[in-house]
Amino acid sequence: MAIRNSLSGQLLRRTSAVAEARFMSSWFRSIEPAPKDPILGVTEAFLADQSPNKVNVGVGAYRDDNGKPVVLECVREAERRIAGSQFMEYLPIGGSVKMVEESLKLAYGENSEFIKDKRIGAVQALSGTGACRLFAAFQHRFHPNSQIYIPVPTWANHHNIWRDAGVPMKTFRYYHPESRGLDFSGLMEDIKNAPDGSFFLLHACAHNPTGVDPSEEQWREISSLIKVKGHFPFFDMAYQGFASGDPARDAKAIRIFLEDGHLIGLAQSYAKNMGLYGQRVGCLSVLCEDEKQAVAVKSQLQLLARPMYSNPPVHGALIVSTVLGDPELKNLWLKEVKVMADRIIGMRATLRENLEKLGSPLPWQHITNQVSS
Amino acid sequence: MIMMMILSRYFNSRTARRFVSTCSGHGWWDKVRVAPKDPTVKVNESFLADPFPHKINLGVGTYRDDDGKPFTPQCVGDAEAKINRYKLEETNSSEVSSKFVMESVKLAYGNDSFVVREGLYAGVPTLSGTGACRLFAEFQRNFYPDSQIHLPDPTWPNHHNIWSQAQIPVKTFHYYDPYTKGLDFDALISDVKNAPDSSFFLLHPCAHNPTGIDPTEEQWREISYQFKVKNHFPFFDMAYQGFSSGDLDKDAAALRIFVEDGHLVGLAQSFAKNMGLFGHKVGCLSVLTRDIKQAAAVKSQLEHIFHSMYSSPPIHGILLVTMILSDPTMKEQWKKEIKIMANRIRAMRTTLRRNLEDLDSSFSWEHITNQVGMFCFSGLTPDQVKYLEKQFHIYMSPDARISMAGVTPSNVNYLANAIHQVTRISEETSVCM
Lengths: 373, 433
Prior knowledge:
The complex is a heterodimer.
Chain A: H1 2-22, H2 38-48, H3 73-82, H4 97-108, H5 113-116, E1 120-125, H6 127-142, E2 148-152, H7 156-164, E3 169-173, E4 175-176, E5 181-182, H8 184-193, E6 199-203, H9 216-229, E7 232-237, H10 247-250, H11 252-259, E8 265-269, E9 282-287, H12 291-309, H13 314-325, H14 327-357, H15 365-369
Parallel strand pairs in A: 2-3, 2-6, 6-7, 7-8
Antiparallel strand pairs in A: 1-9, 4-5, 8-9
Chain B: H1 2-10, H2 14-23, H3 39-49, E1 56-58, H4 74-85, H5 93-109, H6 114-117, E2 121-127, H7 128-143, E3 149-153, H8 157-165, E4 170-174, E5 176-177, E6 182-183, H9 185-194, E7 200-203, H10 217-230, E8 233-238, H11 248-251, H12 253-260, E9 266-270, E10 282-288, H13 292-310, H14 315-326, H15 328-358, H16 366-370, E11 375-377, H17 382-392, E12 394-396, E13 401-403, H18 412-428
Parallel strand pairs in B: 1-12, 3-4, 3-7, 7-8, 8-9
Antiparallel strand pairs in B: 2-10, 5-6, 9-10, 11-13
Helix pairs in contact in B: 1-2, 4-14, 4-15, 5-14, 7-8, 7-13, 9-10, 10-12, 14-15, 15-18, 17-18
């Protein structure tokens, strides 16, 4: 009895000690759940829905005619080629040199003088988000009193990115709800009224979420006015190839700004146009006055990247550089991008047609006027 | 301004363009100076540029085999082959991520840990160890904006950058004793006691980088006890699980002591070294919580933070790790391969020490075998490090940290001779070591 009491007493003491120990501190007791991302929330709701007729037109990830995700053939081939490579070493902090080279050619042009003159400070980034965030951190470091002007509306995460980098945001008019098109005069007025030397975020093509892009003539006017005001144009190009089916054509706005002598910043993503969503591959580039400055800028971008993730992931970069670095694979990619863009353009036409056939009293031409996803 | 616009339109030449861009107002990046090179990168670049045929790279902490070649574990090769047959398009990345986190957490805390059983953790995949630390630093700043981080002296240099970038002031606590080339335990405990209550501390649970010096089990229990008294927050950075002893569970002992003692720890895990997945950037951040409601809240906050940094982590490495850890055969294979890597490094330590002693070096070299993991904190002076580089083409971190992974049977004699030479010269010229 005494032994049993003593043992159970010990057990009791140890149990209550453990229970007490478990709850001795509660560092994060008062933490509330973070607000849900609006788009990811839509997908969650879709997945939870039991209806056989459900349709997900929420998240911006390409689907084929059967609603299935697609792995591009050029990507499969690239995967096959790199499969045996066993290369798992760290990339340099600035990422894959080859991938960055190919990305610059894609955006600035194959024979761009800026590439030849080595005037672009560029690093591999974690897709478009990573490129934007790295630029925002860079902007904050070297222009600590600056703000970013973002269009209304824009991809929701733009707000989070610049906010978390400590850069205050302002907005400029973009979408015109009545016409479901571009509020060009509002946009120009806001550019004019912003203090000289402001930072502006522009969607190079296939504006997300509106699908409304300025015409070439409008881009030229925007470029002129931005020049007059001495603003800094930062382009987020997440859909090169998706707007028209032609990557060169989709980079037109950027090329206009380059011709006009702007020193731009550019975020590129391969999430959509190469279907590499999960691989997180992108590129951040900053056009500089000369090679010396480009070297300095690149080194500072690397200095910012090192305490974020040390060096970027290798796999997606290998795929991109394999595809873009091989003329045959690159051609295949260009065909496949066109197929994706054409399918979407086709669906736009069909959706609009169906709505009009149903005798809808509302106007639906914006469905086909707007571009990309 | 208007005149310039007209000029640029009608004289659409390169000269005009450059003229306009210079005059368009701002030298946007005039203030941008070339950043100092990362010390590890600098060492690596110097090594690569050196044409000497017998050069040795003892800088970066990436594992090399006996031939000095990068080593991809067989289990990783097998997992890669499986992924290629996998239907990529049907990969549900959030399901894979959840599985990955669970397997990572089991690996760290133990399969049977109550933490795992009861789900008392918030876990997310991260961009390797760096990403996990940064994510935690940002989280710490969000919820404890006036807090600081106490880092061991010395530590991996990037720890300083990470917390500074997250705008958390850095303090240090005593760790390394240069006289014994071991742990300065008394000073460590003193610093723990003197820190304000509820301070955040970063601890290396095994294979401390750069010193290779780990507290004993008894010492860890004492540290844990003092942490409890002071209510400090223990954040563990575990980059070398498996490399200390060759045994994954043994290497997690410190972490598990703290968890048993009731601490709600934070933990950064990396699969860069122990699975050879350096370039894939696979890691995991976990934060223990009181209950699953809190776990969900903390997890959502962590996701919120990385959403604006990179949206989601790269999937490839996550797939590889998940496959390996959830397949019993592959996991066993991996455990064997870690043992091989750890044993090779231990053998090189033994050989290097023996060679130096055989050369009748008058210095003590027992720290080479006392220290554990990838690195040996040699105790050489900066001048000696420079001398080794210039005269012998041997490259190591400026703090004289030697990556033992770079030592092979074919270069260990050369290395021992070089170290002996440089320390003998220093002795003769009375430079303290």
